[in-house]
Amino acid sequence: MEKKSIYNWKNNLFGTKSTLYCNEAVIGSLKSIDWNLDAHVSIHKDEYRFINKGLFNPYTEIRNQNNDLIGDIEYSTWTSKATISLINKKYTWSQKNMWMTAWQIEDEQGKIVEIKPSSLSDGGKIESCENSELILSISLYLQKRTAVMFSMLALIPLFTLVLF
Known about the structure:
Elements: E1 5-11, E2 17-22, E3 25-32, E4 39-43, E5 46-53, E6 59-64, E7 69-75, E8 82-86, E9 90-95, E10 103-107, E11 110-117, E12 123-128, H1 133-163
Antiparallel strand pairs: 1-2, 1-12, 2-3, 3-4, 4-5, 5-6, 6-7, 7-8, 8-9, 9-10, 10-11, 11-12
């Protein structure tokens, strides 16, 4: 049986910063501008930038602290899935259940990360079988992006009422 590492994150009041913990010790953070899908993640000494690109065919570039492109994330238009392409490996991000209360990242061999946001959207838990700051950073970024996208979708009816 594989050993899982368990991490927790907590969001600030406005959701612009998430702090990542392992055994109650702070190990990293995600910083973003509200309603912006770009983010900066730092875990231990590793730093990554996630830069959202494209309007009709959205994808996210993943860059390291030297601004080198080290991967990208391509989103499926009609499903809640994404393909994560790194220099030497591919992963799939998808919902774990139909209620979208848990997410997972899988490689060709199966599930390696499970992401469970709390019901209050103030944080959550990440269980990882892979000891990689990059995969952990991607997990934190994708849960944040998903929360922002659902928030935007929830506001569409409100904007429609105001405009019409």
